Amino acid sequence: MASGTVMTAAELEDFLREVFPQAFGPTRPHHVVALGHRTATIRLDADDAHLRPGGTVSGPALMALSDVAVYAALLGQIGRVALAVTTNLSINFLRKPAPGPVFADARIIKLGKRLAVGDVALRGGGSEDLVAHCVATYSIPDKR
Fold first, then answer.
1. Are 3 and 39 in contact (CB under 8 A)?
2. Higher pLDDT, 82 or 40
3. Which of 16, 18, 34, 92 is most buried as measured by Cβ atoms within 10 A of its Cβ?
4. pTM for the predicted model, two decimal places
5. How far is CA 128 from the centre of its chain?
6. Mean pLDDT rounded to a whole number for the chain
7. Any idea what DSSP says for residue 21?
8. Stretch 32-53: mean pLDDT, rounded?
9. DSSP of 27-72, one letter per residue?
């Protein structure tokens, strides 16, 4: 297990296939690359289905990737809590990402009993330049 996490990246991806098949099912484009203490890296294999006119990865695809990445970083800390939900997501688009892999590096910057806040740096496969930056808040259900 990664230091500071309650599950491994492989265990997390298995769980996400179970509870989030639209993003992690057998033919879906998201993959857990890494999981650490309050961090996760998710890869989107952006293909024609994720493109908008002009050949760039669409905003909705980047927003979904950001949301999934914060969810993964959060679950890495709190475990299998499928009903943790997004309450807010704000994204700034910085550059046009090309088709191919897009990476979302998420980190939890505040983890409370009922709320978590994370940010995400999104970058294309061949560059360290950010294509977008996101901040998201998650509601964590009561453990009762």
1. no
2. 40
3. 16
4. 0.92
5. 17
6. 91
7. H
8. 92
9. T-SEEEEEEETTEEEEEEEE-GGGEETTTEE-HHHHHHHHHHHHHH
Question: Cα separation of 66 and 136, whole Å?
Answer: 8
Domain count along the chain = 1
C-alpha distances in angstroms, 100 versus 48, 67, 103, 127?
A: 9, 19, 10, 12
- Predicted pLDDT of residue 23: 75
Identify which has the larger pLDDT, 72 or 127.
72
The CATH number of residue 34's host domain is: 3.10.129.10
Locate 67 and state its tokens. Answer: 């949301």
C-alpha torsion sign, points 69, 75, 80, 86: negative
24-52 average pLDDT score: 88
Residue 121 sits in which domain range? 9-139
